Amino acid sequence: MKKDTRLALIGAALVLVAGVVGGFVQTDGGAVRVSDIRFAGSNGTIMSALLYVPETATAKTPAPGILAVHGYINSRETQSGFAVEFARRGYVVLCLDQTGHGYSDSPAFANGFGGPDGLKYLRSLDFVDGDNIGLEGHSMGGWTVLAAAATMPDAYRSIVLEGSSTGAPYAMEGSPSWPRNLGVVFSTMDEFAPLMWGVARGKDAPDSPKLQALFGTTGRVKAGEVYGSIAAGTARALFQPRTTHPGDHLSTEAVGYAIDWFDRTLEGAKPLPSSDQTWFWKELATLAGLVGFVLAVLGAGGALLRAPAFSALAMAAPAGVPSKGPALWISVAVAAAVPALTFFPFLKLGAALKASALWPQSITNQIMVWALLNGIVSLALFMAWHLASAKKRGGGAAAYGLDLGGANLLRTIAYAACAIGAGALLLLAADFLFKIDFRFWVVALKPMSMQQFKAFLGYLLPFTAFFLMSSVATNGQLRPAGGKAATRYWTAVAAGSGGFLAFLLAQYIPLLAGGTLLTASEPLNVIVAMQFLPLMAVTSLFSAWFFERTGRAWAGAFVNGIFVTWYIVAGQAFHYMVR
Prior knowledge:
It is built from 16 helices and 10 strands. It is an alpha/beta fold.
């Protein structure tokens, strides 16, 4: 138990380091003030943003401003790499949550994605130079800033589209004269090349007829060359970093090209080479915070079992009747493969479940259907194994960690909530003291708003049911007998996430080799699957860890249900209006 306390303290220490380092980097050592703001937009919609204000920006000396917007099913923090670098150079940056995303009111796509409201708010600040405003958006964030440019055509000076395009759904078609001074940053391996520019591969963007029409040329667009006139507002330039669509957020090239374009087209920024970047230290710091959260939950889960309220839950794990030898590893392989193989078809089935007051997030609905159907498949495979093999060897509720009285059920729910609560308190402290969340790239854990918490309650039971069904299989059938606990942890992680590792390798090896995704027609779902790899690894670890300490499948299932429902709901878009 002392080791568990030590583990929790290590987790807390990592969060402290994350806060200090992350806060220092995003404020440029105190030279930039970062504020969490809310403002009223169209139709009474409350919009959320992070506002980066350099100390040089005052009402007497207004600074150039940039509206920076994330892509679909992301949030304002996803653009922090860009925001940090812009602010270091003296720009006031409004990092906006699109409507229906993050802490902005639902639904998604409303009011031009919130772009016009964001630009209007940025221009209202007396320390912003209204004659020097840039717009930057990644993916659907590009359509957001285009909506702002279309609504307020004289309210900005230049635009950077990162992994985005004109003429996509909800966005106006571009021309050689609109939008004003456009920099297109489109990566050579962007998964959305067909949608954005009508070409098969990102590196083919220079040959896109759509892009050529936008640039006013009939030949191949030359990357890095300026077409048109900056003074006349007709400038066009294409930049092609060597990365993927979500990789723009981890690319010093992609960030650097945006810096260079605004340096060329806006005035008043501090001259600083685009190669001088520090944002990645914040990214590493918030990754440390994410790791610290996991360690804190594990450590708190062990330490809480010493408390009188939960000591009755501390039981030795049953010996069980697990598979052995080749049968075990075949079972592990099947358990790993099924969730990945069913990923596309079950998500497609889930698309039929429309957003509603109870379940207001369309993509979360798809994931929920995937989870429930996989839980049923997992349970069916487990029961087949039980009836064919395990039952005759003494398999039953006790051997599988399922025997639990009514009083202990309530106690276990409270225990799981307290274990997750330890990590949640660290996150709230990091948010309050340092204005950071726990994240790496597209994997992010954020505090929930009231709107998100209400949705969390609706999704909690279905996701918990999935983790209970998978926990029975993980700890009843796939748990190696004897040996070290570490072996059992690694086996659980392999069974939970190994299939998604193989899935992503199968998708990205062809892309990185110069081609396209294995399933080029499914770029969004492939990118969504990236999050499944770490999520399934962490939840498998939680499942095995809590089984070792409580001897039951329930605690890990409840911890995972709370954690994953929180994670998904806080990071997804609302497609149904919730107030």
